[in-house]
């Protein structure tokens, strides 16, 4: 069983930055593939970014490429999402997710249904 706790959300103005953190416990964190998802009101949950167990492979949604960076520190059991140049359309609840596998499944890492473990979410609001 894996427990995930997100933090770092908040209210920022367009163009500003935030860093989200996802702290994991209850399993060997270094064997987890992790991802960040977001869900805006009235919309489906969508993939933002994903990272392999080693951090050597990453995936980004087209809408965040060049602005967001996913990373992980296995010694601290934590995954991060650095969000720069934030836009109002980035406003959503951001969720951390994890799956207990060291295999990178590109076809699956963008699919929320593939992940077994989820955090409670953290609100990010971008508004002037």
Describe this structure in words.
The chain is mainly β and 128 residues long. The protein has one helix spanning 106-109, and strands at residues 3-7, 10-12, 18-25, 33-39, 46-51, 58-60, 68-73, 78-83, 92-99, 117-118, 122-126. The strands form two sheets. Strands 2, 4, 5, 6, 9, 10 and 11 form a seven-stranded mixed sheet that branches. The chain has a four-stranded antiparallel sheet with strand order 1-3-8-7, with no helix packed on it. The chain is globular, with a radius of gyration of 13 Å. Strand 5 and strand 6 form a beta hairpin. It contains one helix and eleven strands; from the N terminus they run E-E-E-E-E-E-E-E-E-H-E-E.
Give the strand content.
over 45%
End-to-end Cα distance, whole Å, is 40 Å
Average pLDDT metric: 95
Please tell me what the overall shape is.
globular
Sheet with the most strands?
7 strands, mixed
Number of helices: 1
The gyration radius over C-alpha positions equals 13 Å
Q: Structural class, from secondary structure content? A: mainly beta
> SSE order, as H and E?
EEEEEEEEEHEE
């Amino acid at each position: 069983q894996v427990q995930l706790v997100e933090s770092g959300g908040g209210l920022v103005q367009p163009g500003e930055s935030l860093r989200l953190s996802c702290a994991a416990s209850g399993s060997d964190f270094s064997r987890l593939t992790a991802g960040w998802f977001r869900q805006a009101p009235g919309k489906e949950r969508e993939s933002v970014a994903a990272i392999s167990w080693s951090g050597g492979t990453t995936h980004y949604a087209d809408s965040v490429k060049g602005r967001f960076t996913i990373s992980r520190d296995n010694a601290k059991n934590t995954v991060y999402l650095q969000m720069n140049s934030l836009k109002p359309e980035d406003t959503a609840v951001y969720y951390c997710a994890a799956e207990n596998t060291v295999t990178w499944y590109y076809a699956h890492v963008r699919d929320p249904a593939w992940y077994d473990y989820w955090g409670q979410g953290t609100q990010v609001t971008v508004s002037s």
